[in-house]
Design brief:
This protein is 47% helix and 12% strand. It has a seven-stranded mixed sheet with strand order 3-2-1-4-6-5-7, sandwiched between helices. The protein starts with 10 loop residues before the first strand and ends with a helix. With 333 residues, the chain is of the alpha/beta class. The chain has eleven helices and seven strands. Helix 1 links the parallel strand 1 and strand 2. Helix 5 packs parallel to helix 8 and helix 9 packs antiparallel against helix 10. It folds into two domains: 224 residues, Spore Coat Polysaccharide Biosynthesis Protein SpsA, Chain A, CATH 3.90.550.10; 69 residues.
Length: 333
C-alpha cells in the first residue's frame, strides 16, 4: 500500500481501472493499453473488480499472471465506482494517477498527452470528451446539467467532470478521501487544497460491448454529494458559521413576525387568535435556539475530532531548511 509520506515511486504512472461486469472488454482494454504505452513510459495497471457477477475477475486474474505490472484487487461486493477508485489509489505506487473506464470508451492513447500536461506544472489534468459518443437523453443531457451546476457551486470551471480519464499528481490525491459519488469531484477537492487544475480534449468512443451502468438519476446524487463536499470543505472546522447563520435568520424572522403581531394587535385591534402569527413567532424562536445549540455542539465535536487525532487544519506544499525527521513529518502530515 502506498504510504502518504512516500517520495520514491516505483512507476511513473498508475492506471486505476474499476471493473464491473466488463468481461467482453477487459482483454481488449489491456491490449489497447500496451499498444499505447509500451516502451513510452514506466507504468502499472491496477484493475479493481467491483463485485462483478460475470467472468471479469477470472479474465483479470489471467492478465495478472501474464503481465507483472498488471495488478488486480477484488472487492467482496459491488461498492460503486468511487469506492473502487479509492481502493486503487490507496494501493498504487506511481508518481501520477490516471483513472479510466473499463468499457473502452476512454482511449489509452491520450495518456501520454495527459502526463505531458502534468509535467508542464499542473497538478490535475481533466479529460474533456469534446466529441462525446453517447446518447443525448440518458447520458449527454444529465452530464451537461451536472457540469454546469458543479462549476457554478464549486468555482472550478470544467466542461466534463464526468470523464473518468484524468491525470493527478499522487501527492495531491493523498489529501482527498472519496465516498458517495465524489470521484468526479477530485478536481474540485484538489483545487480547494491549492492544486493547479486544467483540462484538455480527449478522444471518446461509443460503447461496443456490455451495458452502461449510468443513468439520469445519478445527476441528483451528484448534486447532493456536491452540497456535502462544499460544506465539509468550507465549514468543517467551524460549523457554527452555518448553523449560527441559520439561527440568526430564524431569530430575525421571529422578531419580524412578533412586531407584525403587535402592530396588528395595538394598531388595528385585530385579535391574534384569528391569525397564525403567534404560532409562527413561537416556531421561529424555537428553531433559532435549537439551531444555535446544534451549531455549538457541532463546533465542539469538530474541535474534539481535530485535537484527539492531532489533525492539521492546513496543508503544506513545500518547506525550506527543514532537515530533521520531526520537521519532515510535519511537512508530510
Amino acid at each position: 500500500m502506498l504510504n502518504a509520506n512516500t517520495t520514491e515511486y516505483q512507476y511513473k504512472a498508475s492506471l486505476i481501472i474499476p471493473v464491473y461486469n466488463e468481461e467482453e472488454n477487459v482483454n481488449l482494454l489491456q491490449t489497447e493499453i500496451e499498444k499505447s504505452l509500451e516502451g513510452k513510459l514506466s507504468y502499472e495497471v491496477i484493475y479493481i473488480d467491483d463485485g462483478s457477477s460475470d467472468r471479469s475477475y477470472e479474465l483479470l486474474a489471467e492478465i495478472a499472471k501474464q503481465k507483472p505490472n498488471a495488478k488486480v484487487i477484488k472487492l467482496r461486493r459491488n461498492y460503486g465506482q468511487t469506492a473502487a477508485m479509492q481502493a486503487g489509489i490507496e494501493n498504487a505506487s506511481g508518481e501520477i494517477m490516471i483513472p479510466l473506464d473499463s468499457d473502452l470508451q476512454n482511449d489509452p492513447s491520450d495518456i501520454p498527452d495527459l502526463i505531458a500536461k502534468v509535467e508542464e506544472g499542473y497538478d490535475v489534468v481533466s479529460g474533456w470528451r469534446k466529441n462525446r459518443q453517447d446518447t443525448f437523453i440518458n447520458r449527454k443531457l444529465p452530464s451537461v446539467i451536472a457540469n454546469k451546476i458543479i462549476s457554478m457551486i464549486s468555482g472550478v470551471h470544467l466542461h466534463d467532470y464526468g470523464c473518468s480519464l484524468k491525470a493527478y499528481k499522487t501527492d495531491v490525491l493523498k489529501y482527498v478521501k472519496l465516498y458517495g459519488e465524489l470521484h468526479r469531484f477530485i478536481p474540485v477537492c484538489a483545487s480547494w487544497y491549492g492544486a493547479k487544475v486544467t483540462e484538455m480534449p480527449v478522444k471518446h468512443h461509443a460503447r461496443r460491448f456490455g451495458v452502461s451502468k449510468y443513468g439520469i438519476n445519478r445527476t441528483f446524487k451528484v448534486i447532493l454529494d456536491l452540497i456535502v463536499m462544499k460544506f465539509l470543505t468550507n465549514y468543517a472546522t467551524r460549523p457554527i458559521y452555518v448553523f449560527g447563520g441559520m439561527a440568526i435568520l430564524s431569530m430575525l424572522l421571529f422578531m419580524a413576525s412578533a412586531v407584525w403581531a403587535l402592530a396588528l394587535k395595538f394598531g388595528y385591534g385585530i385579535d391574534l387568535d384569528s391569525t397564525p402569527l403567534p404560532v409562527i413567532s413561537t416556531m421561529f424562536f424555537t428553531v433559532a435556539i435549537q439551531v444555535a445549540m446544534m451549531g455549538l455542539l457541532a463546533d465542539m465535536l469538530m474541535r474534539t475530532y481535530y485535537e484527539s487525532q492531532d489533525k492539521k487544519i492546513y496543508t503544506v506544499e513545500k518547506a525550506l531548511n527543514y532537515e530533521t525527521e520531526a520537521a519532515r513529518d510535519f511537512v508530510n502530515a
